[in-house]
Amino acid sequence: MEPNRIAVSCRGLTKSYGTGDAQTLALRGIDLSIRYGELLMLVGPSGSGKTTLLSIIAGILDQDAGQCVVLDHDSRTMDATERARFRGRSIGFVFQTFNLLPSLTVVENVAVPLLINGTPRKTAAKRARGMLDAFDLGGRAKALPTQLSGGQQQRVAIARALIHAPKLIVCDEPTSNLDHTAGHHVMELLRREAQVPDRALVVVTHDSRIFEFADRIAHMDDGRIVEVTNGTTQEATPQ
């Protein structure tokens, strides 16, 4: 893998909500690159634009202006079907509320991305069981999400995000509902996955306990990136 190869390139991104006097500027000209092989965190106060930026990177929201190229694709050049197919194939999602389907077993939850992408059910279940074994959850494959601890549910959510081998993983507050030990375990898993060649990982977080796992930290305020630092060293680095 070439050093510092770019997985995500954002240039001049703006985004607003509402109109007229009620208009709110969520992003005010964002320039940011995310490299393959790194874990980048987006941090800052509530309302600073972190989740909006993450949603544009993930192809869930459209920017008002500027360009966001993700894995060599610009979502604004794709129609809705192409965009959904690209997300399903290339992006893994991890959320703070886990977003597991309560009526499905753990192994069925993990298999969902494969089924969406057309993998035969039997093959998907086999691969999901293998992923659960890798996350030390093989013994809970037939359990329902409500029968798991918070840390276990988040590990299932990560397994589901990784099952289809996405090149980009986006995480929205993945540790906010977990205690210190469970949160660190989750971040150790994510950190390991971020170091896989041809993969990048971006995490939105308020949780300063996990800053040590970042390669770089982009600090946001009032819709802008005010500084990018190198993990816990806190040395400024080019965006």
Short description:
By secondary structure, the protein is α/β, with parallel strands linked by helices. The protein is 30% helix and 27% strand.
Give a description of the structure:
The protein has 239 residues and is an alpha/beta fold. It has a single domain, classed as Rossmann fold (3-Layer(aba) Sandwich), CATH 3.40.50.300. The protein contains six helices and ten strands; from the N terminus they run βββαββαβαααβαβββ. The strands form two sheets. Strands 6-7-8-3-9-10 form a six-stranded mixed sheet. Strands 2-1-4-5 form a four-stranded antiparallel sheet, covered by helices on one side. β1 and β2 form a beta hairpin. It is globular, with a radius of gyration of 18 Å. It starts with 5 loop residues before the first strand and ends in a 10-residue tail after the last strand.
**CATH homologous group name:** P-loop containing nucleotide triphosphate hydrolases
How much is the average pLDDT?
91
Q: Give the structural class.
A: alpha/beta
Q: Number of domains in the coordinates? A: 1
Shape: globular
Low-confidence stretches: none
Q: Note the main sheet.
A: 6 strands, mixed
CATH topology: Rossmann fold
Classified by CATH, the class is: Alpha Beta
CATH architecture: 3-Layer(aba) Sandwich
